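Hello,

Our lab assistant flagged a job as stuck in the queue for most of the afternoon. It eventually completed. Since we weren't sure the result was trustworthy after the delay, we are filing this so someone can double-check. Below is the sequence as submitted and the structure that was eventually returned. Let us know if re-running is recommended.
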Amino acid sequence: MVLVAFEHIYFMILEMFYWDKPKGLKTFVLTLEAAKSSKTMAKNQGLYNGFLAAGLIWAILNKNNFGQLAVFFLSCVVVAGIFGAYTTKNIKLFYVQAAPALIGLLLVFLGINLLFWNCP
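-- returned structure --
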């Protein structure tokens, strides 16, 4: 789950600050013209990725409600990844965004605690 949170922080940074820079152009396979015309939308999208990361970090830090928060925010990431892969026709997006969140959900449902809260 920590990996998924860090991914979304990275996505936020790319979309909000590097969208029309060489790193963003290469990552999102954009022309400079297309990036400049969609820069405002990308910043908004980046903000949403930041909210997902914040929610995942909140879940990690909140051991009393960890399960509920983790399931909610990981499910949001899964839906976003599936929708993004479908609408962009880019299956790689599914593997980068949705698959790690699905693995996180599976671990939460199996009760596997990788955060070591219960260790002496």
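-- support follow-up --
The delay was a queue issue, not a problem with the job. The result is valid. The mean pLDDT is 91. Residues 84 and 90 are 8 Å apart (CA to CA).
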